[in-house]
Request: fold
Amino acid sequence: MAAYDIRVIGDPVLRQKANDVAEIDGALVKLVEDMLETMYAAPGIGLAAPQVGVDKRLFVWDIGYGPNAMVNPEIIEGDGEWVFEEGCLSVPGLSWEIVRPKKIHIVGRDLDGNEMTYEADELESRMFQHEMDHLNGVLLIERLDEDTRKSALKTLRDLQIGTPETKPAGGGLTLP
Ligand code: NI
Reply:
């Protein structure tokens, strides 16, 4: 059994802007281990701390070249456009084609406190952008155009995924 249950749309923790990690200590390293275990069990290629109910700017990932974690990430710039069918463990079972920048430059810290920097493209870039959204309280459905978003919310209600959101972050998304 995974270390954590993954929070699902409707949970307010997914709608908060997460706080900077102040100190990288043993508890944070344990959190990363537990998040990776949870991510692999799901399975997923990325997982952000708010998805396990932890209000910290931290995510883990593995897109096929091993587990990794980034603390206090920041996207410096994006370039180009890329369409990719994107899903989210917090919006289970659904996915949509979403356009985002193709390449990004992201910087953050590793668990030793050293700077990490990536010039990421395509899948890696997309994963970083998606996890970064989680740290800002933004869910996949905000990346959809209005019509698609409405039908996505209806699908979520019909499938009884999550709970209706009454106080969305980032504006404009209220369920009846
Ligand atoms: Ni996600």
